[in-house]
Amino acid sequence: MGSRLTEEQSDFVAAIRDFARRECGTREQRDALTKGGRTAHDPGLYGRLAELGWLGVCLPEEYGGAGGGLADACLFLEETAYGMVPAGGFITTVIAAKAYERFGTEVQRREVLGGAVRGDVLSIAMSEPGAGSDVGALRCKAERLPDGDWLVEGQKTWISSAHHARSILLVARTGPDKHGGLTMFHLPAGTPGVAIRGIETMGGDEVNDVFLTGVRLPADATVGQVGDGWKQLMAGLNYERLFLAANMLGLARRAFDDALAHISEREQFGRPVGSFQALRHRIADLATEIECTRLLIRDVAADCDARPERLFPREASMAKLKATETAKRTALEGMQMMGGYGYATEYDMERHLRAAVVSTVYGGTSEIQRDLIGKTYGL
Which helix (H) or strand (E) holds 29? Predict the structure, then answer.
């Protein structure tokens, strides 16, 4: 695909932008939808996105989706982030949905993928208090009972969108082997023994602790093969890292445009502050970094769509690393260029910064991404 969009993709982007302008174009609208910036997901607006058919952008047509590829999903994520559309549940939903698509049973796919297209939110429960980057250290345990059912005990933490989720894709330990002893499970919301408690963060009500006490799941709750959870997680890295990258690309673009608009209008010493060389150079550097990020994401997405059977660990990690670091830098620079106005809650820049700083942590930290990239060069 390179840097150019097809006519259909261009129309898709234009439609998202029009929706964002109508529904979220003013600060008053965004405050009403996000409880003053405390939540990134509005169920009502999310339902309207479902009615437009956009939530199934990269899901199979047989389950009600549009049948598009990763490139199309990345465009949706980029433009909704740029338009500040509070559809925060989409990322975890589409990442989990792709796992069900590849490894779930037909019954699971029809329930979960069909629900995602209609507006259900999905979540993924992997991280634990003692296991984040080291996935093999997971301790949440699923034990098979004599009747074939599963008994699950443990705790998950930093679980995005669990409080909105219709179901959770749970990763639990079913064997002693560090990586070969992990299994994925389908965990419907409201299952007895599941308690979800929000964690207060700079970004508001985004993540949760999930406590599992005496949770009983049926024998057919496994997603994929028992003991293959690690392999299945690795198979989904293209999706996760690209989707997170596209989302942060949209945020970087929005922070850049907000900063540019401000310094073009704000006057000091008798002229716009953007006319001073120090700020002109900052704008030039940020614009170049954002454009590089855009081209990288689109190129990797095109490769993944062209060869869906392949993993692109180096390229997907590069996209995630580049986009998240660029978004964080852009928001920080934007705040600096706007001065006190960037720090004031009256303006959006402080929200951009709060959303951007955590992106270099979740989904694999920047340090982990660099380590993975280095390993692909034999180091």
Answer: helix 27-34
pTM for this prediction: 0.95
Q: Residue 137 contacts by C-beta under 8 Å, 6 or more apart in sequence?
A: 128, 130, 131, 178
Q: Tokens in use for 135?
A: 């996935």
Asked if 283 and 362 touch (Cβ cutoff 8 Å), the reply is: no
Q: How far is CA 116 from the centre of its chain?
A: 15
Q: Angle formed by the axes of helices 237-265 and 89-103, to 10°?
A: 160
The first and second tokens of residue 191, run together, are: 């299952």
Tokens of 216: 């009983």
3-state secondary structure of 20: helix
Do the beta carbons of residue 23 and residue 86 sit within 8 Å? no
What is the tens place of the pLDDT at every residue in 151-186? 999 999 999 999 999 999 999 999 999 989 999 999
Contacts of 87 (CB under 8 A, 6+ apart): 41, 42, 45, 46, 49, 80
Separation of alpha carbons 45 and 36, rounded Å: 16
DSSP summary character for residue 4:
P
Question: Who contacts 242 (Cβ-Cβ below 8 Å, separation ≥6)?
Answer: 70, 74, 297, 300, 301, 304, 316, 319, 320
